[in-house]
Protein 1
Amino acid sequence: MQSNLVPRFLTPDSLLPTPYSLLPFLTYLTKLRTAIVVIFINYDVCI
């Protein structure tokens, strides 16, 4: 399923800046994941 998205993001022109442009997205994903984990922990504690 992801093979269709690869050519769009991994064009030769954008190979160099790709990691830098993905950094905010990765940090957002990690924050979102930790927030979900905290919510689930609090949910289990409340029950």
Protein 2
Amino acid sequence: MDTWTLRPSRVFPYPRLAVTTTVPDALRARLYSFELRVVWRLFEQYAEQHPRLASALLDPALFGTLARLLDEQVAPTVVELVRGEAAIRFPGAGITRDMYRQLAATLVANPEAFLDQHDSVRRRIHSTALNFQRSILRCCARLEEDWADLQAYFFAGVVQVALVRLGSSGSDFHKGGGQVLLLTFRDAAGNESRLVYKPSDLERDFRIVGDTAALTAALNAALLNVVTGKGVTAAVLLQGNGSLCELFNDQQQAAAATGPALPVYRILPVWPGSALALQTDAAGASVLPLRDSYGYTQFLTSGEQDNRFTAAQRQIYYSAFGAQVALCWLLQITDMHQENLIVHQHLPYLIDLEACSPGVLEVPSGTQLDTAYSTFCAEQQDRQVIGWDTPDLRYETPGTAARQPLLNALYDLDGHLAYPTNVDRAQLSAAFQSAVTLILANVAAYQTWLTNAAQLVARVLVISTRSLQGAERAMADAGNVADIVLMCQRGGDIDLSRWSPLFADAISPAQGDPPTPQQIGARYAALQPAFAVWSDPQLAADFADGDVPTFYQRMSGVDLLNSRGRALTVDYGRMLASLPAPRQLPVATALVQQWGAQAPLQPTWWFVQPVLQTQRQYLQQMQAPGGFSTLRIQAALQDLQRWPNRPDSQPG
């Protein structure tokens, strides 16, 4: 039987009980049964109208996923609610384990009464089920439209007669319940093929690691007849020098270099950001329809045939890895942690490349590829759902939580985990240095690549995803949506108070002279006012819908966009109020000159300049004669030497 260990909570500040507080899974499951039945009936109706999707939609494993997801999202809150009631009824140590279980059974015996009393739980259950339902059915509708093109592009024209499995990746909900889904198709001969569906813009992935030659051939042969009406055209996606990795491979070949070719794979970005045009929403604001973007990628296997290495294969692997680190470091590609690298065909394949650093990555660790380098395991526990469609729904957890290998792990020929060695790190560092030299010798080509990607929409990591996850789960316990809005506003006030001194220091030269616009521009680059994010109404709306908020920026644009594609407004007038009175007018004047803003000072953009401009200037500076690039490369190599061959948290 699965149990939940109580965690301290600021939402339910009850005293500790003398017994371990749990709510048996059978009791928790009663709270979810209604939503599970609703989703089942809805999928049944959809399956009747779309028979080639029926097997996937009515797969018991799919509903087991929803049941497990509901419990992961709701159970901690239910446990704390029951614990709070127990602490009130049985203060001190006056409760036994049996008494607690009896109380839990009494409180949850009538699910409707419990949910009426605790509306936050009802809303959480409903929003989780609704997000899951939306994610699946939105994917199905797009599949039906794109089916013929997917056959042509990913399955060499082999007719796929049915979608037989539709698996959730377990990723966070974004942009209205979107989740990465794993698709399994079956052809007339019974052979199965897999594909990955992503409810997000894949253009950045395509422009970095995409097989542009494959898309060029498909478009030239007129094999794609549906997605070409959704922005998949040569004019939008194919401007000449290929994806970033293809460009590097061509330069390496031209220089007769001995490094391995960097891997690319098939990616189909549908409604890519470069094809999106501004629209006007119901409130009359200009928005970029970010939620229209989605796409498909080739499924990358990572089994024994992919990840068991000889010594020679390891040398090739770390040479390719070193070149990838160089590209990501020089072109501000970040969030490349251990879950965003897959070992496939004995090479490192980069996935989920939507995140972009708005500034400059000082050392390679800023890419987060250091975690992909040596973090091969994570604590995981398999939770199986039994009887999801019966009154006896329960969760079984075989064994205990253990560190399980991830898809970026390397193995020796005997199947043992093979962590990096000093020899591997030396190979990676040498390949990194060679790649940086090659890139800086061909900066003009990379400037062209950046120019071609000017309209691309990248995800910007203003606040870490983990921090947003924690806030989203905490706010789900709030009594109503108004509480969530209020908590968001308070978060903005807290960030405002923290950021005010930084702002004052950055734009107030020590000598007391009025700051120039150039000084503000130069010194502001390191400041990121997170209070603007917390003040944006869409953040509260995302939390209330069960989403983890995301933020975006067009490479050539100056606006930071929320998940609806609307620009955030940064109120620097509030910042001016934090300055000494004699400083306020000179600073306001300089800011108006810098940003062209009118009083009250509210420029609508987030950064001093577009990401594209920052990256182009940085490459130019790295290429210029002098000691700047030498010092940066030395710092980068020193950083690589600090990458652990095995993190301290990894067992031997």
Protein 3
Amino acid sequence: MLLVLPGTLFGAEVKPEIDTQPSSLELSVSGKESPVLVAVRNSSDSVLSNLRLSWLANDRVRVGSAASLQLPKLAPHEEHVWEFTIALAQPGDKIGETLRLRLDYIISLAGEAVPQVVLRPMEVKTREVEPPDRLVDVQVKTTLDSLETSRTGIAYLVIYNKSIQTIMVRSIAPVGKPDFIQLKLSPEFKESKLQPYQTIVQEVQVTANRSVEPGKYLLIFKVTLGSHEGTTWRDSNAIASQEVILGVLGESAILKVLSLPSFFLLPGCLVILTAGLFCRVGWLRRQTRVGDFPLKYNEPDFWLVSITISLFMAIVYWLIVGRWYFVRYGLQDIAIVWFISIVLGVLGYAVWQRIAKWMEDRLTLSTRDGPLDILRKMHRRKTGLVLARVTLAADQTAPAFVLQENDNHLWICPSMRINLGRASTEVQAEIRTQLTAEGDPNRLADLLETSSAGASWNLHPITGVRLVPQTDVAARANQGDMIVEEVV
């Protein structure tokens, strides 16, 4: 924004332009001076004379210039640049001010010298002070991915000053480590001054005790830092961490083959893998189908069952032996858990197949199923009375309802016709309450079976339950509909 005083008519014809670089300024709270360039551009066809740059008084900032801020004249369409500095009047203050620059000059108008003034506002504020931990980059560099009992590894703590300030590294300390891991700084660290863009490397020796709790752990280091910002001293902490896997002899090889993160998960994993092997072989199954075991390795449902079995075995092991097998253990415990898990996997698979055969008979759809059979199976499948609809290419007079669908085929049926017949008024009312989207298929089947009311299939587009290929479907409805309807 430019303000021209006085001479409104002249100001409309001749407007010297003032630009600042930067357009707004952030000052250091230390009171350090910041340079500013001011460019005055005469875009008119008149000569400007006796130009003088100044500023309106502001007691929050200190403005100065080593060179003269005056210019005898400025020819048309020429430009001149002045340089001056701005700093805080009181180091340590936090400000947000508007500094108004003033340009005085003279223009010749009708043979007379007319003084003019242009004001140019400039936003000035203090720069936010960053804590020392924002000014450094702390990392742990190491190839130490795993560590076995009674072994020692090396890690390096790298501290890099990415700022133009001097940072004091006051201390380095490991925090939160378990008691069976020893961390030693070699050599012992002493307070150091970290110059701008300088790096410090500290060696750390990592040792695992004879008895450990295998698993993943974080090696955490706290670096205490300090720096001056003006007269203010600021302290902060930077945190760096490195993950390491502790194990016992032989454990890492077994867990690597099975891609397991912890020995605790081994029993459940072995039980499920054993059952999956017999499932693929087809032992005790009516039909041998390869690769249809319901628990897929590394998926959430696999880990749900695996962890549950592992917890159960841990409790049983504790009741028998008197200790947790996954706390602090050796190779003998791994062997015992391995063979017990294999046996449990075989027994568990046999029981599962017996139960699966019984459940399959209660859920499997058949072309011999009547309306009541379908209602009960819908209840067991936790399906409501609202089903998806499709139109068949062979008969498009009425939609068919989808009971079950896969990539290649659909189980479908026509709508069910409910005839209340001579059922009592109370039974009719209860049946009607079930003929809604929230109705219970099993309760509806019970009412129809125990009363004089009846259910039958609609004769279109098919006469009962059918298994049809996907290619027989001509169209699909945008939303589902009730599979049951009352007829008079």
Protein 4
Amino acid sequence: MPRHLPLRLAPLLAATSVVPWGTGQAAALALDPTLTVVLDGVYYDDNADGEGDARLGETAGIFDAHDHEAADHEHGLEQGFNLRHTEISLTGGIEKLLDARLNVAIYDGGDVEVEEAFLATTDLPAGLRIKAGKFYSGIGYANERHPHDWDFVDQNLPYRTLLGVHGLSDIGAQLTWQPAWDHDTRFGIEAFQGDNNERLGTEADHADDLPGRDDAPGLYTAFAKWSPALGHDHALQLGASAAWFRSHQEFHHHDEPDEHGLDGEARLWGLDATYAFHADGAHGQGDWRVAAEYLIAEKNLEVAHHASDPSVIGQARDFTEDGLYVQATYGIAPRWEVGLRYDAVGFTNEKRGPLAASNADYDESDRWTAAATWQISDTSRLRAQVARVSAALETDREHYTQFYLQYQWRFSLGQRSDPHAGHHHGHDH
């Protein structure tokens, strides 16, 4: 069954998808592995000189003016044709005791990245489950969903701004508990190494000028998900999550002699809600889904290095930024689905310090997106998407339109008909 939604919600969300990738089948504990390859091509254009996608990563706020090692993690879209990363997945069971998964991403420049490589128990008592390795955190709704499982071409703004394009993933361990209650409920805690983050919990490039980072694990998370019984055709999930990054560093490159480095910790809180209705129509006709999340990030830092004014070392700098998205999809015809999304960041978007000169308030950025998806077959789909962006940048506000045309193709070999079920919508119980 899919990975991070309770048992009632997971199969229904899969059933209400025109796109049958992640169909919610229970994970078979076969010894024979399944191999899956997913290709993802996107044609992209905008009326911002081809810089519209990059500018979404440069919106004004608490993440726009510093260097850190994770900056190289983003692989943005360029104007024209793009081959996004090719995903190769290998899944299987080990002696009916463990599930194993390996996901490798190959980028068009030749870079290879291990997205996930983990083992997970399948038969512990009392509703317990342990996962260990490299994997996507169970926080929120969208975090565990790989790009090939998104309802839209690109990542939503709150995740992209506060966590990075790839969300929150790292090397660590997860413990979940699903008690035998009347309503499906799941609690989870995680501990991660803490050195694979894109936005929060980062290490500055100029680490020699900053204190050493705390010993690992450097990241802890907790989450809870609840799903009431609403009948066969309806499903609802409500969730809450939190993350604590024990160490966060950044280096601000202003004009000399004002370069300075900050060191401290960061936190993230989130609320999410998902509702799905299954209409029993052919190939998803009449099905619809609604999902919403709110995230807020806080960095509590101190000046640890200043190029010209050592007297400010030790002064506090507190940063806060939030964001939300609301999205809905509807099956208008067999194999055809339309979607609408509103996402925004920066309703709260501020920097605070002991002096007035240290304070700053930034504007919010938002976007409206519409998409239409045609599930050509069980192995391929075509999606057209248009977005209207209002982006608050460092010096001004820009309004522009983005256009995407995406084609995805999937090929599978092995007993597990859909290894993407393991990272789409739910959990593996």
